[in-house]
């Protein structure tokens, strides 16, 4: 979205396919920065475009679909573009109007017409109108809707002064909801359920002020608030909302702590449920902690300075499937440090990703986060041009934050070399860019630009250009591994003596899809092996002082060379007998299986099989 010179906004819908239905998420954010609650809806001139809340199919178009936004509240807006069932000639739409009115329009996100109303002006239960939230819940039938007129309701006072005989479901001091399918919705304006009295106590076997123990319960446009100062700043106080029933929904609302900083109590908690949906809501100094969730969605939420964790999913979650997109989990100037979006397992699927690196990648790229944590490791963003405290501008400093099991997503730019002294760390380029690790800015050691230290395992380096300084090609290696079980992938190394080196003490390392140019040696495996070099390109090597001929692979440990491009005049060299097995490599000549076609006269005992006569077009970084 861009602003034109006349003050109008130009909206571009990305990646719209012809003759298809395209879902566009996270298109824009609408926030109420005024002084009173408003109702927001869209109007446009296109049948092909439907504006809706991010992550679901709830339309925002027309007065009947208006959503209520309290002061400071926001919604993230997506769009559905249907060019399959609509004729589109030229622009998808010429104009769109975003309306914000204080009039009581719409039904608040298509929630059903309420059968029960809670109002500050109600004097009893006549015509199903109540001044007490507890009384409305007691009266309501399963599957019905309780609508709230604009105002702030002291829910703790309602609970303490509940009608005689109200059992709290066995949970002392809680609003206990055990009726399936109840919907709590705002009829107009801002609706706040506030806790000013219940603190520093457990409220039964569970800790929720509002406890949901039945399925299909929805909160739509409801804001829940704890006044920490009014409670006397206790060391513990109830969760504000707790779900223990399946298919619960909290959307278009807020959960917040005011007048103090939380000692760590989550604002929203759920345990042993499925189908939980937390969407388009604002969390202020209050996180969401979810235990043993089998499935759920977290879409378009804003977590402002929660106590360390914005979203935490933990417990028995193996096999869990979640959609976690367009959330902001950041520290906006509080003293709570870096904020985390955390999933305590790798045996889950998030946004379709199921590998550890994939989980990190989707949590970081599809959300705005200080830190994404997966199974105990931290994932952070590295940006050479960034000065914000939540983003690291050097790879070395980011490694210190990520630690063992961590992940670094590196944006485009130039970076100094570095050492890796932790296990199971992945450092990869952000999608669509190739950052440069430049020895001119610094090296991991005097002879290696990037170094994996001895004894370390599980390192992955992916998607970089590694640039050496040595124009005489008599010194440094681009990437050096002294550890084991590690991978260098999609890397271009230039101006080095050796592009990739697996040196003494290393074992079971892989170089995949690498290109080495303007260097004398492509990959040099030593240590105990076995190592693998595959789908790589060494046709850009040159001669120099070190070798009389360019050496694509020079191995002194058992190594398999598979589907690599060597070209004419680039050799394999085995420094120990039978060190190399060549399988499906291209040498720029017609050879036959069993022939030593890729070595100079000094090299013996290389097993060559499946020699190809055309290069692997997919090998290396072109």
Can you give a write-up of this model?
The chain has 622 residues and is mostly beta strands. It folds into 3 domains: 2-101; 116-379, Pectate Lyase C-like; 381-609, Single-stranded right-handed beta-helix, Pectin lyase-like (Pectate Lyase C-like). Helix content is 5%, strand content 38%. The chain has 4 helices and 57 strands. The strands form 8 sheets. The chain has an 18-stranded mixed sheet, sandwiched between helices. Strand 1 (2-3) and strand 2 form a beta hairpin. The longest helix is centred in the middle third of the chain and has 10 residues, at 356-365. The chain is elongated. 50% of the residues are buried. Residues 104-110 and 590-598 have low confidence and may be disordered.
Q: What is the multimeric organization of the chains shown?
A: single chain
What form results from the Cα inertia axes? elongated
The biggest beta sheet reads: 18 strands, mixed
The portion of residues forming beta strands comes to: 35-45%
Uncertain residue ranges: 104-110, 590-598
What is the number of domains?
3
Count of β-strands: 57
Mean pLDDT: 84
Question: How does the SSE layout of this entry go?
Answer:
Layout: E1 2-3, E2 9-10, E3 21-31, E4 38-44, E5 49-53, E6 67-69, E7 74-82, E8 96-101, E9 116-118, E10 129-130, H1 133-139, E11 145-148, E12 151-154, H2 155-160, E13 175-177, E14 183-186, E15 191-195, E16 208-212, E17 218-220, E18 222-227, E19 239-243, E20 249-251, E21 254-258, E22 268-271, E23 276-279, E24 282-284, E25 288-291, E26 295-299, E27 302-304, E28 309-314, E29 321-325, E30 328-330, E31 340-343, E32 349-350, H3 356-365, E33 368-369, E34 371-374, E35 377-382, H4 395-402, E36 407-410, E37 414-415, E38 418-420, E39 426-429, E40 436-438, E41 448-452, E42 460-462, E43 465-467, E44 477-481, E45 487-489, E46 492-494, E47 498-502, E48 510-512, E49 515-517, E50 521-525, E51 531-534, E52 537-540, E53 551-555, E54 559-562, E55 571-574, E56 580-583, E57 607-609
Parallel strand pairs: 9-10, 9-11, 11-14, 12-15, 13-16, 14-17, 15-18, 16-19, 17-20, 18-21, 19-22, 20-23, 21-24, 22-25, 23-26, 24-27, 25-28, 26-29, 27-30, 28-31, 29-32, 30-33, 31-34, 35-36, 36-39, 37-40, 38-41, 39-42, 40-43, 41-44, 42-45, 43-46, 44-47, 45-48, 46-49, 47-50, 48-51, 49-52, 50-53, 51-54, ...
Antiparallel strand pairs: 1-2, 3-7, 4-6, 4-8, 5-7, 34-35
């Amino acid at each position: 979205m861009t602003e034109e010179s006349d003050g109008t906004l130009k909206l571009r819908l990305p990646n719209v396919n012809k003759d298809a239905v395209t879902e566009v998420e996270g298109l824009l954010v609408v926030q109420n920065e005024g002084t009173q609650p408003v109702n927001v809806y869209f109007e446009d001139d296109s049948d092909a475009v439907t504006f809706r809340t991010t992550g679901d199919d709830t339309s925002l178009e027309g007065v009947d679909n208006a959503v209520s936004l309290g002061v400071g509240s926001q919604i993230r807006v997506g769009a559905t573009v249907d060019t399959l069932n609509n004729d589109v000639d030229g622009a998808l739409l010429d104009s769109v109007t975003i309306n914000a009115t204080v009039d009581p329009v719409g039904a608040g996100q298509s929630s059903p017409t309420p059968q029960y109303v809670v109002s500050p002006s109600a004097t009893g239960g006549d015509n199903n109108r109540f001044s007490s939230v507890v009384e409305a819940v007691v009266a309501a039938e399963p599957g019905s809707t309780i609508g709230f007129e604009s105002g702030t309701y002291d829910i703790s006072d309602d609970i303490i002064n509940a009608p005689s005989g109200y059992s709290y479901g066995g949970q002392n001091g809680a609003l206990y909801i055990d009726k399936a399918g109840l919907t709590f919705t705002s009829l107009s304006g801002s609706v706040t359920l506030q806790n000013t009295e219940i603190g520093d106590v457990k409220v039964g076997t569970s800790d929720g002020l509002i406890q949901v123990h039945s399925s299909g319960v929805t909160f739509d446009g409801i804001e829940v608030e704890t006044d920490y100062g009014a409670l006397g700043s206790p060391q513990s106080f109830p969760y504000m909302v707790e779900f223990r029933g399946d298919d619960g929904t909290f959307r278009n609302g807020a959960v917040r702590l005011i007048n103090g900083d939380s000692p760590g109590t989550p604002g929203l908690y759920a345990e042993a449920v499925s189908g939980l949906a937390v969407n388009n809501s604002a969390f202020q100094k209050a996180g969401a902690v979810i235990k043993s969730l089998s499935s759920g969605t977290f879409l378009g939420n804003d977590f402002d300075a929660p106590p360390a964790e914005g979203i935490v999913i933990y417990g028995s979650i193996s096999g869990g499937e979640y959609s976690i997109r367009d959330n902001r989990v950041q520290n906006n100037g509080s003293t709570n440090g870096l904020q985390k979006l955390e999933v305590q397992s790798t045996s889950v699927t998030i946004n379709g990703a199921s590998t550890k690196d994939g989980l990190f990648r989707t949590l970081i790229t599809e959300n705005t986060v200080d830190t994404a944590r997966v199974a105990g490791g931290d994932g952070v963003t590295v940006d050479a041009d960034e000065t914000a405290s939540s983003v690291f501008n050097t790879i070395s400093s980011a490694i210190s934050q990520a630690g063992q099991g961590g992940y670094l997503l590196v944006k485009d730019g130039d970076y100094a070399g570095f050492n890796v002294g932790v296990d199971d760390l992945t450092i990869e380029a952000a999608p669509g860019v190739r950052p440069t690790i430049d020895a001119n800015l610094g090296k991991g050691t005097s002879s290696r630009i990037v170094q994996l230290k001895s004894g370390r395992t599980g390192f992955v380096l992916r998607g970089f250009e590694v640039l050496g300084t040595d124009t005489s090609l008599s010194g440094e290696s681009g990437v050096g591994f002294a550890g084991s079980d590690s991978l260098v992938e999609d890397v271009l190394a230039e101006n080095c003596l050796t592009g990739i080196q697996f040196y003494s003490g290393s074992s079971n390392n892989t170089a995949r899809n690498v290109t080495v140019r303007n260097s004398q040696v492509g990959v040099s495996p030593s240590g105990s092996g076995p190592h693998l070099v595959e789908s790589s390109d060494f046709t850009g090597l040159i001669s120099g002082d070190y070798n009389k001929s360019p050496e694509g692979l020079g191995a002194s440990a058992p190594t398999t060379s598979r589907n690599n491009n060597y070209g004419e005049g680039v050799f394999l060299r085995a420094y120990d007998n039978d060190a190399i097995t060549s399988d499906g490599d291209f040498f720029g000549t017609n050879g036959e299986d069993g022939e030593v076609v890729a070595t100079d006269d000094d090299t013996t005992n290389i097993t060559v099989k499946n020699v190809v006569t055309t290069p692997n077009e997919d090998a290396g970084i072109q």
